[in-house]
Known about the structure:
heterodimer, A: alpha/beta, 5-stranded parallel beta sheet, about 30% strand, elongated, B: mainly alpha, 7 helices, globular
Amino acid sequence: MRQVVIIGGGVAGLEAAGFLGKMGHQVVLLEKEKAVGGHVGKWDRLFPNRRQGSEVMDFIRKKMDEKVSIITEAGIKSIDTSPDGYAVVLTNGEAIRADAILLATGFELFDARKKEEYGYGIYDNVITSADLERIFREEGKITTADGQAPQKVAFVHCVGSRDEKAGNVYCSKVCCVTGVKQAIEVKEMMPAAKVYSFYMDIRMFDRHFEELYIEAQQQGITFIRGRLSEVYEDQGKVQCKVEDTLTGKPMKVTVDLLVLLVGFMPSPETKRLAGMLKINIGSDGFVLPIDGHISQNETGVPGIFLAGAVTGPKCIATTLSDARSAALQIDQYLKTK
Amino acid sequence: MKKDKWGYGIHPDRQIDLDNANLSLLELVRQSEPSYNLCIACGSCAATCTAGNLTTISLRRINIYLQRGMIKELREEIRRCMLCGKCYLACPRGVNTRHVIIAIHEALKATGYEEL
Lengths: 337, 116
């Protein structure tokens, strides 16, 4: 029986594992963390319909059968070529035979501390979108650092995205709709709160996203077009400076809580593994498939495939489709090998 | 000098202070014409406006003045509208723009700002 090693246990790796198992292949899934689930496993509700992220995780997990074995806390020491494929050597010395390898190493969130002008890690009332999801999931209510309910909350789009000085020229795609979703959720939890959104463009690229934006407008969320230049915190209040580009005037807004919508970064592990496997990385740090239109899952190196955000920012639905596509291509490859 | 004024001189600055902006008119207009919230500042209304071809009226600009509490500018510009309603036909979000103008006039009257 053919064996596929999948590197990365986020939604892309898990979905591909389930499909490859169903196709009759043996699958070993390697995850560096203590548990699989990746970023989606840490998210509360998902855009655009605000279903629980755990529902999607359950759907993916259900598909996996005994053909899939998962190794967590797996560190990869090297990937060696062998006469019939590859051997993935773990840091504990164990070598795993692989007829094909699927790279599903995904992304990591932009470290908001790099945008020092927004004060993340410096000011008490500046958090990230990921922090807010954790608060939704674990605490169920939003408070400022001194335990008060915030009366004014602002969201900042494009933190670490479309920002060449932060090293990222690209749009992270999911932050706009995440920010709009979270703004609605904050408004629903605290109807009296004023909610602002600082944006350059609202990029609602996918189905039902624009409708979510309309819902946010109907809820009275104030959208301010301008890239936030800097904030400072005084006695717990966060003062935001921005150009209101629609009036062409500088603007000042004071809020109790500032939420930074952090974007995607290629994971450092992707870079390391790409070096080992001699596959190409683009100037944006994400892996280059052999063709961006017609071969998103292929690397040009025989037996090495790609799925999910390893090739750039993707939302969950696209990632799942991409993972299924990768599984199909691996199946074809193994049949003709 | 108060710290939150960011001021270094005696002249009023150009900055919009949204914390202290007068949004009383905005609230009245939102209540009177809920579709107002759906504006995406695309400018279709201003592009199609006959008065806008001849004077400096832009409904897109009027909307943003309202949202920022810039009542003086709002009052000045809204006078040029002829209430023809062409902008309503152009709006891709279905904002009842003609009624927005009427609602602004009513709000100006209700708040007493019309006379200022």
